[in-house]
Design brief:
The protein is of the alpha+beta class and about 140 residues long. It starts with a strand and ends in an 8-residue tail after the last helix. It contains three helices and five strands; from the N terminus they run E-E-E-E-H-E-H-H. Strand 1 and strand 2 form a beta hairpin. The strands form two sheets. A three-stranded antiparallel beta sheet has the order 3-4-5, with helices on one face. A two-stranded antiparallel sheet has the order 1-2. The model has no long low-confidence stretch (mean pLDDT about 80).
């Protein structure tokens, strides 16, 4: 079991890890060993996630979420399979923790009378500058 929050725990059987060949540093070893990790987590069918956390995770995941509701995280930062595996799991836990936090309710605020007056004064000043740039009409003398 992977602890996300005190109330959310993910069973390791819900996570599928596939090892693939990675690009980048590694010399000739890169052609022989599959060190990159592709983690798959079925968000849509996971019994461990509450509905509100599931919805926030889908919004947060963006392109990493497939049409079937599967979250895919690829880790290829390190040269070893073990470190990439741990990196993928850490990133999954971080995403789940971020989705578990409820967003703060925003209270709309109104502009103060002083800020409204200052905005209008700035508009008047800017308009005066633009009026002074106009060509002067010839005087009729």
């Amino acid at each position: 079991m992977i602890d996300i929050t005190p109330s959310i725990r993910i069973d390791e059987s819900e996570i599928q890890l596939d090892f693939i060949r990675a690009s980048g540093p590694g010399g000739q070893n890169i052609n022989k060993v599959a060190t990159a990790v592709q983690l798959r987590f079925d968000v849509g069918n996971s019994p461990s996630l509450p509905d509100d956390v599931r919805q926030r995770l889908v919004m947060q995941a963006g392109k990493r979420m497939t049409a079937d509701g599967v979250l895919i995280i690829e880790a290829r930062r390190f040269r070893t399979q073990g470190r990439n595996r741990q990196d993928a799991l850490d990133r999954l836990v971080a995403m789940l923790r971020a989705a578990a936090q409820k967003p703060r309710h925003r209270r709309p605020t109104a502009a103060t009378p002083a800020s409204k007056e200052q905005r209008l004064e700035n508009k008047r000043r800017r308009g005066q500058i633009k009026r002074l740039r106009r060509p002067v009409a010839p005087s009729e003398d």
